[in-house]
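To start, an entry.
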Amino acid sequence: MKSKLLSLFLLVGMGAGAWADETDSGGFYAKFDIGAAFQDTADISEFLGFAANPTLDLETDPGFRLGLAGGLQLNDSLALELESGVTYNAVDSVGGISLSGAGVELDIYQVPVLLSLIYRIPIGDHFSAYLGGGAGGVYALLEGDESEDDITFAWQVQAGAEWAIGENLNLGVGYKLLGTGEIEWADVATVDSLLTHSVLASIRLEF
């Protein structure tokens, strides 16, 4: 399953590169970001094939997020951005029961594919702020002794700031909130949604 995730991530990266070749060189940019990922407590409505009433809490440990995006600057302020990447969080507990104490390991991987609109706000000669939002889908993988996966709707909002250190190179810091629809991991669990907060450092290269 991990090899499938890597292959999908590389495929999106090659797609972004192909998009770069077909867009006007003055309006295209590529962006890479990396940072920490924190998931809100999620509600499990079904567990091991049985309805959970009330729902069970799903708690995860802090993890990480890697992202790759290609953008087309539509004008001085607006850009259209295609993004993918991967987030990882280990499951800490289910229904208040620690998995490590029970000798169980479960990991959650998310691979989103999102189309977003980004609005940039210049602040002086070298700084800018941005806001954005978009939607798409996410591949959600639950990996343990056996693996279960699902594909569902996803949305994202983001904000951040960038510092231009050259004519075409920008360093930035940002925040992203990734949300999903219902995720069904076969007979293991059904999660109403996942909310993942990420704090990221980024590099954006304009072409």
User: Anything to note?
Assistant: The two ends are 34 Å apart (CA to CA). The longest strand covers residues 147-164. DSSP finds one helix and 13 strands in the chain. Residues 133 and 153 are 14 Å apart (CA to CA).
